[in-house]
Amino acid sequence: MLKITPPVSDAPPTETVVARIRTNASANPERLAIVCGSDSLSWGQFDLRINRVANLMVQQGFGTGDNIAIISPNSIPYAELFMGILRAGACVTPLSSMAAPEALQKMLVDCGAKAIFVAEQYLGLVDGFISDLPIARFAIDFTHASFSDYETALAHSPTTDPLVPIQMEDAFNLIYSSGTTGTPKGILHNHWMRAAQMDRVSPNGYDAEARTLISTPLYSNTTIVSFIPTLFGGSTVHLMAKFDARTYLQIAEREKITHTMLVPVQYKRIMDVPDFDSFDLTSMRLKFSTSAPLRADVKRDVLERFPGKLVEYYGLTEGGGVTVLVADEHPTKLHTVGTLAPGNDIRLIDAAGNEVPKGTVGEICGRGPTMMAGYFGRDDLTADYIWRDAEGLVYFRSGDMGAFDEDGFLVLSDRKKDMIISGGLNIYANDLELVLLEDPDVIDAAVIGIPSEAWGETPLGLVVTRDGASRTAADILTQANARLGKSQRLSELEIRETLPRSTIGKILKKDLRAPYWDATQA
After folding, report:
1. CA gap 472, 111 in Å, rounded
2. What are 145-156's pLDDT values in tens digits?
3. Of 208, 349, 402, 435, which has the most beta carbons under 10 Å away?
4. Contact call for residues 33 and 237 (beta carbons, < 8 A)
5. pLDDT in tens, 4-50
6. Residue 377 and residue 21: Cα distance in Å, rounded?
């Protein structure tokens, strides 16, 4: 595999996540570790279940370098599988429930998964092909002739710690970046990378009394970067199997939640709960946001009404450059994603790979302490993802466009692939979406490029309007275009019931574009 060397740290990690979890369980066996609905495990119980999973892996002959897949909603079994696979020295491969069966099959073949653990809710996604693969199959919460029963298998596994040696360069997790039916792209993180992320545990207050509420799926890096630090700090994780804004607020109030990780669409839905202000959320210390830009108006609303600090992270699942915005400390910078995190560097480049002048929009290339080991089995893709500076140092190309303002805060423009080139001019969809979202009747918006004989492609606006709105698409289009420059104006606008989003809240623009572009190839 193509070797990627992150910057040398003044304090490189010396303890793996696996080792710290073991220590935490031994130190505080009675403390609550995992809660999901009405089910819970103390640290002592969690540790014994982790041992059973690890010993099951060993009994099956799985260990270092072996990929073990999971497809399940958030649950206590998911949490114990995650940590048990790691304790056995194997690599966790959490699969997206948003992926099509064809894509899931390609992922499992691509990584050569040795085993898969499946929850009944997602059996239909794999049942059509799984028996054709040379893979051990375990049913987490159902009975099936082609699957071994999870609880029965654990009952035959010892509760003693197998004490499998773990090295920092060993694989930790493999996350597939897309749920499409195209070529899978597995992002490989090693134990060094995850251990390096634990430098945020103490500064972010993941202490013994911390209680983190997680409502995004465990197959997402968004979730993992909150899940693991909570456990590393020896505190308590509260998992939601499925997000619902009112249920979230009820749990946060009842359990006196101190930390949370939410994606932008979740913040909007929570703040829009009619009686939001009636919930006692004063226990909340720290709220994180990532995966997509959080709109400035939503940040402002969160700061005014939702207790605790608000911290927005910008970064990639692949790692590289990270920026941080502590929103309450920089109320005039809510339109940005903050400044460089310690030890990180970001360069902005043009289409030719040259750095652009300060203040100019360019593709964001990042370098930092937490960088992926590479795309699994795809040195070619890994090499394509790399940009090197004059000294030959490796930076990851993000595909995002942005510019630094005069104070060093990063302002995002768009995804490079979402940029619309109309008549030879670059149009950033994000700029147009922000104008649409300022319309009082618009609650959600996306802008995509569609085919145009005159211009090559032209921007189309897609919006969701608030309940009770009576204005037409033409009315909204006219108001938006009056505020846009001549080269930015929307050619058309459509009102939709909803916009398709992934489970972590990203608008699926590829799905929105497909009907328009597929028609040109018919």
Report:
1. 49
2. 999 999 999 999
3. 402
4. yes
5. 777 766 678 899 999 999 999 999 999 999 999 999 999 999 999 99
6. 29
* Residue 185 phi, psi (nearest 5): -135, 100
d(CA 132, CA 126): 10
- The Cα 302–Cα 268 span in angstroms is 9
Helices 221-232 and 76-87 cross at an angle (nearest 10°) of: 70
For the domain covering 201-314, report its CATH number.
3.40.50.980
Second CATH level (architecture) for the domain 38-191: 3-Layer(aba) Sandwich (3.40)
Is the predicted pLDDT of residue 424 greater than 80, yes or no?
no
Reference 261, options 289, 242, 293, 233; nearest CA is 289
Residue 387: CB atoms within 10 A of its CB come to 18
Is the full-model pTM beyond 0.90?
Answer: no
- Spatial separation of the C-alpha atoms in residues 177 and 184, rounded to whole Å: 8
Query: What is the spatial distance between Cα 93 and Cα 219, in angstroms, rounded to a whole number?
Result: 8
What digits encode the pLDDT tens for the residues 95-132? Answer: 999 888 988 999 999 999 999 999 999 999 999 999 99
In eight-state DSSP terms, residue 235 is -
For the cut 50, the answer to whether the pLDDT of residue 181 exceeds it is no
In angstroms, how far is CA 440 from the centroid of its own chain?
A: 30
408 φ/ψ sector (left φ>0, alpha ψ -120 to 50, else beta): left
pLDDT at residue 158 above 60?
yes
Q: How far is CA 50 from the centre of its chain?
A: 24
Segment 299-351, tens digit of pLDDT: 999 999 999 999 999 998 998 899 999 999 999 999 999 999 999 999 999 98
* Residue 275: pLDDT over 50: yes
**38-191 matches 201-314 in fold:** yes
Q: How far is CA 176 from CA 188, 202, 224, in A?
A: 9, 30, 14
At the fourth CATH level, the homologous superfamily of domain 338-368+375-415 is Luciferase; Domain 3 (2.30.38.10)
Enumerate the H helices of 321-412 as residue ranges: 379-384
The CATH fold assigned to 419-520 is GMP Synthetase; Chain A, domain 3 (3.30.300)
